[in-house]
Amino acid sequence: MHLARIPRRRYTHGPTPIEHLPRLSEHLAGPQIYIKRDDLLGLAAGGNKTRKLEFLVADALASGANTLVTTGAVQSNHCRLTLAAAVKEGLRCRLVLEERVAGSYSPDASGNNLLFHLLGVDDVTVVPAGTDLDAAMQQVADQITADGGKPYVVPGGGSNALGALGYVSCAEEMLAQTSDMGLPLDHIVCASGSGGTHAGLVAGLYGNQAGIPLTGISVRAERAAQETKLHTLANATSRLAGAEREVPADAITVRDEYVGPGYSLPTPEMSAAIQLFARTEGILLDPVYTGKTAAGLVDLVRTGELGSDGNVLFVHTGGSPALYAYQDVVLAEPDE
Ligand SMILES: *Cc1c(COP(=O)(O)O)cnc(C)c1O
């Protein structure tokens, strides 16, 4: 795999840190927990979509586009970061927001919604859950073309093979860092949503023969469907990165028992995990992705599935701006 062949913009200075979390590790009384601080990536307020956008926006610029079009949920971190990349590159940006939970869109909401407006979004189209989002984005793109512009459609979550290269690169970065640190990893845990993060990490770890098991915590889909989708995406990503071997299906592990009632809907374990990370390590998670992923991590440590010693790396994919749209949930008492 040799990513230097593929055009890329740079939105972060250097690697994001890997930090030890000694107080959290002591509290959980299992393996040592480390964190990959991808919440500190570049572009407004950081997070995992920044890595994908380095490749996607380079492709958009090469195509001569003047407007990015993308889609996400009403508090989408991906939409915030696509918009921030557009601003930085002197492009325009239009968003299609899917109201995945009925009634969840409010034009005055805080969190990422506030940032859409602060960053100067050109246009927001809100569509109901279950809308064909590719068709909805194409409609927006056609309008831009009709008005004399040149659109570039970034897929939801930035999760096509090109975007997922961002996490092939992250896997290589983590392998270089941990070998410099003399830190042997026994397990990696990440969020699994639109899938580009998880699939890119699988492609990068497998392609470099790292031999480190990776568990993706689903924030939305049921396990079997997510694993099938990831296998296809991991292989497309691998091929694009120039790997010679297929990624086997058993390199992909998804756990779906931490989703709760559904995407973006709170669970008590999510609130507890957000409070635990904040109060032991001063680290801000988010209610939709990393809070549920951390709830999964905590549970897998408590049940002994991650072993009793060794080193586990939690990939912090960002998202803290959404905290400000979930005030009650974030401070919920565990028994409420
Ligand atoms: C989008 C997102 C994820 C999920 O990443 P995918 O690549 O879509 O699976 C995780 N955490 C945060 C904060 C996100 O915004």
UniProtKB/TrEMBL annotation:
N6-(pyridoxal phosphate)lysine found at: K49
UniProt GO BP: alpha-amino acid metabolic process
InterPro entries documented for this protein: ACCD_DCysDesulf, D-Cys_desShydrase, TrpB-like_PALP, TrpB-like_PALP_sf
Domain Tryptophan synthase beta chain-like PALP: 12-318
Active site: S76
Family annotation (Gene3D superfamilies): 3.40.50.1100
Pfam families with a match to the protein in the record: PALP (PF00291)
GO molecular function: D-cysteine desulfhydrase activity
Cofactor requirements of the protein: pyridoxal 5'-phosphate
Domain of life: Bacteria
Enzyme class: lyase
Keyword Lyase: yes
EC numbers, comma separated: 4.4.1.15
UniProtKB keywords: Lyase, Pyridoxal phosphate
Family of this protein: Belongs to the ACC deaminase/D-cysteine desulfhydrase family.
NCBIfam families the UniProt entry points to: ACC_deam_rel, PRK03910.1-4
Name of this protein: D-cysteine desulfhydrase
Organism of origin: Solicola gregarius
Upper classification of the organism: Bacteria, Bacillati, Actinomycetota, Actinomycetes, Propionibacteriales
